[in-house]
Structure to design on (524 residues):
């Protein structure tokens, strides 16, 4: 057996059980945000991080790479190297980062904003911003959505400083640069892609946003110049607002979202039940208010956490998370542990592709049971709504990614001002008058999923590429087992045995290209 093969196999034997412990502890801390679960999670993460910090093993991995390992062994060594690099730190620094991340995350989970003298969940705040015609109530709800920012901001800055200290000790400029390098993403390419996405969406977004402002001003009886963030339909203006032309929520009233999602996944010949049976999908106190999918053991224990309501958005969310889940269940059986995972861009693409089905005529007709005449009437409006969704989302990713790059360039900068500069530049939203608050810190991703947001945009673009490929090769997606089989073979099965950018080319027929985004937003 070669040295390289022995090293990766030993690492897999050592890491696999620790990874299961960490994933389970994390899952438990999210379904039940107690101090006890947070402590357990912290202990598991420290053990996991200590294993990845093993200096002798890291040195052996480096040496084996330099000795010219090839094929699967080389790929596993590369992944091991990238996974271990950010843990090659003094123990005290490594542990301090884990502790602070855990403590900040717990505060996000437990915090509730106050509206009308009552603590409310994020979903309630969103409901007010979607439905209320009372600007005073809207403003109160919007401000309540930001109060968590002040609770965590100092520690989020401290986390950025600590992460930078770690990155610099490993020879990288800052945490932003280190994260990209170990995620197989090229910073120059990312900056170029974001600039191209800015150009592709700038003009259609401005046009659409002006029309939206006219409608909002009429609805709230004010001038366009008086519109502020709380006039938008969600706390960050990250989603397309319901504009009345396609309010599908009434179609979802009293509908079992889990059932729709199951039926969708099974319709393309993929497995949903094993995931659903292990999942936790309805809102509850003391539970993470967001949604995610987690592969606990890389051997079939895949779970979804969600907070489903009976809305189109909930259908999108559940399909999105199952889109991650079917990917995790789809790795080729003979892949070794290190390759039984996926690049963030590839798994987001699958998730976004499945989530977007809730916007497609074929899904509404076949799965939700909308009549074909209603479907035909809806189709052009669905298409436009989807285009708007992509526009709004792209502008939001531009805010997030530009902000994070600046945060790590200088965690001590005037971030409160920078945040609103970016929001006005990219989202064309007028900041509240004289507001001084760390509103950026109210976005949980900045604290607990650092340097991740750009993968959503990459994923959204790859999802468009996948949809185009499935359209031409399988005639569509809904109820087409051929589409599921193609995804399985080309996207899921290889796991991490192929670099993500090549996988995208193999699965969609072309490299990641903003041209797909440009085409998709043209109909907005
Ligand atoms: Zn996702």
């Amino acid at each position: 057996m070669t040295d390289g093969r022995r090293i990766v196999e030993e690492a897999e034997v050592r890491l696999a059980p620790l990874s299961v412990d960490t994933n389970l502890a994390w899952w438990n801390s999210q379904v039940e945000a107690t101090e006890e679960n947070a402590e357990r999670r912290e202990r598991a993460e420290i053990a996991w991080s200590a294993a990845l910090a093993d200096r002798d093993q890291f040195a052996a991995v480096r040496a084996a790479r330099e000795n010219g390992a090839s094929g699967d062994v080389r790929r596993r060594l590369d992944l091991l190297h990238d996974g271990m690099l950010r843990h090659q730190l003094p123990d005290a620094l490594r542990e301090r980062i884990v502790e602070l991340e855990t403590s900040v995350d717990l505060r996000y989970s437990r915090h509730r904003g106050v509206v009308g003298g009552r603590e409310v969940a994020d979903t309630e705040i969103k409901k007010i911003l979607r439905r209320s015609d009372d600007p005073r109530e809207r403003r109160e709800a919007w401000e309540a959505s930001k109060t968590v920012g002040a609770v965590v901001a100092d520690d989020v800055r401290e986390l950025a400083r600590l992460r930078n200290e770690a990155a610099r000790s490993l020879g990288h400029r800052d945490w932003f640069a280190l994260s990209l390098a170990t995620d197989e993403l090229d910073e120059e390419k990312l900056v170029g892609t974001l600039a191209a996405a800015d150009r592709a969406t700038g003009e259609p977004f401005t046009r659409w946003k002006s029309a939206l402002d006219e409608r909002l001003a009429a609805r709230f009886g004010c001038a366009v110049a008086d519109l502020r963030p709380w006039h938008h339909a969600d706390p960050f203006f990250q989603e397309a607002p319901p504009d009345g032309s396609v309010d599908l929520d009434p179609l979802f009233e009293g509908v079992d979202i889990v059932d729709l999602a199951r039926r969708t996944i099974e319709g393309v010949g993929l497995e949903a039940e094993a995931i659903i049976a292990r999942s936790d999908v309805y809102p509850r106190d003391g539970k993470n208010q967001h949604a995610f999918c987690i592969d606990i053991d890389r051997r079939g224990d895949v779970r979804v956490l969600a907070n489903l309501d009976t809305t189109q958005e909930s259908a999108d969310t559940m399909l999105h998370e199952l889109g991650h889940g079917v990917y995790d269940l789809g790795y080729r059986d003979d892949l070794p542990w290190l390759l039984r995972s996926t690049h963030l861009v590839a798994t987001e693409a699958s998730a976004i592709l499945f989530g977007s089905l809730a916007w497609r005529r074929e899904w509404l007709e076949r799965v939700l049971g909308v009549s074909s005449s209603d479907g035909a009437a809806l189709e052009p409006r669905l298409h436009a709504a989807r285009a708007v969704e992509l526009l709004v989302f792209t502008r939001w990713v531009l805010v997030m990614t530009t902000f994070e790059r600046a945060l790590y360039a200088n965690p001590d900068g005037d971030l409160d001002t920078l945040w609103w500069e970016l929001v006005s530049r990219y989202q064309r939203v007028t900041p509240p008058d004289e507001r001084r608050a760390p509103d950026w810190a109210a976005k949980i991703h900045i604290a607990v999923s650092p340097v991740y947001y750009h993968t959503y945009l990459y994923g959204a673009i790859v999802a468009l590429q996948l949809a185009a490929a499935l359209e031409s090769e399988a005639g569509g997606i809904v109820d087409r087992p051929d589409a599921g089989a193609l995804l399985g073979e080309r996207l899921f099965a290889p796991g991490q045995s192929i670099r993500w950018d090549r996988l995208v080319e193999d699965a969609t027929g072309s490299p990641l290209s903003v041209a797909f985004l440009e085409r998709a937003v043209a109909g907005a």
Q: What stands out?
A: The longest strand covers residues 292-295. The mean pLDDT is 95. Residues 320, 324, 348, 351 surround zinc ion (CB under 6 Å).
